[in-house]
Design goal:
This protein has about 100 residues and is mainly beta. The protein is built from one helix and six strands; from the N terminus they run βββαβββ.
């Protein structure tokens, strides 16, 4: 199998523009492999991988939102969103296949 270029996003603050009440104001994003090992973490997407994420054209609109760019082999992965400093709220997790194929 060919590795897939993927973009994972955890949105919170930008959801308020769509009328979502109680949006998570500072989401963090963890990516786990099938063994339960954390393979990536992000809090505030501009802190890491900024140029790679911007190059996708899919950068979050709020700097507090999280994103991870990863090239991964086929397999099972888990993305977990949490609020920074144990805050709570509504968040949206998105995964984009940047290779253009399933």
């Amino acid at each position: 199998m060919v590795n897939q270029a993927l973009l994972f996003r955890a949105l919170g603050p930008s959801l308020t523009a769509f009328g979502v009440p109680g949006a998570l104001q500072d989401p963090t994003l963890q990516l786990f492999n099938s063994s339960g090992v954390v393979i990536a973490f992000n809090d505030n997407w501009r802190d890491t991988q900024q140029s790679q994420i911007q190059a996708t054209g899919l950068a979050p609109t709020d700097d507090r939102e999280s994103a991870i760019y990863a090239t991964l082999p086929a397999g099972a992965y888990t993305a977990i969103v949490r609020g920074a400093n144990n805050t709570t709220g509504v968040a949206l997790v998105e995964v984009y296949n940047l290779n253009g194929s399933p």
